[in-house]
Design goal:
Elements lengths: L1 H22 L2 H12 L3 E10 L4 E10 L7 E6 L4 E7 L4 E6 L5 E14 L2 E2 L5 H14 E6 L6 H5 L1
Antiparallel strand pairs: 1-2, 1-8, 2-6, 3-4, 3-8, 4-6, 5-6, 6-7
């Protein structure tokens, strides 16, 4: 009986996922692929920029994988489109955050150096251009993945 229920559940879930994918918008499919194929995936909640050092402190939820210093990163918007490139600049740190009703959430934080915004290399920008482009980037930034993923070959060619 248990095996029958388990098989029924698995078959029903497969049919449900197949139906979802057939009716899903293309950008949602792309984000699902990112979740499946990226070896490192981080959802961004907050970004604090340290202008003099050119680094940014990224805070949010690590979903998958472990970051390591000098790992190349791709910064994506909520629809899976690449906005910028960066480099992991510090070890991942975990922090507990207390919320209402004494719920404790684990948040991760790391430093990252942004190396490219769109097609512009950061080293080639003056301070004002960089600040303006960074502000725009931070409005749309949602996901960070490892840049060496084979999921989107065009990410690595930019």
């Amino acid at each position: 009986m248990f095996r029958f229920i388990k098989n029924f559940h698995e078959k029903t879930m497969e049919e449900y996922k197949k139906g979802l994918e057939e009716n899903m918008e293309p950008w949602k499919k792309k984000v699902m692929e990112i979740h499946d194929q990226a070896s490192y995936l981080f959802y961004v909640e907050e970004v604090a920029s340290k202008m003099p050092q050119g680094t940014s402190v990224i805070r949010g939820d690590r979903v998958k994988g472990n970051g390591r210093p000098y790992m190349a990163l791709s910064l994506l918007d909520g629809q899976g489109e690449e906005l910028a490139k960066g480099v992991f600049h510090s070890e991942m740190q975990e922090q507990e955050e207390r919320r209402k009703w004494f719920v404790v959430e684990q948040k991760q934080e790391f430093q990252m150096k942004i190396t490219q915004i769109g097609d512009q290399m950061v080293d080639e920008l003056d301070a004002r251009e960089y600040r303006n482009m960074l502000q725009e980037l931070l409005l749309d930034l949602s996901l960070i993945i490892n840049a060496d993923t084979e999921l989107f070959p065009d990410i690595n060619k930019k």
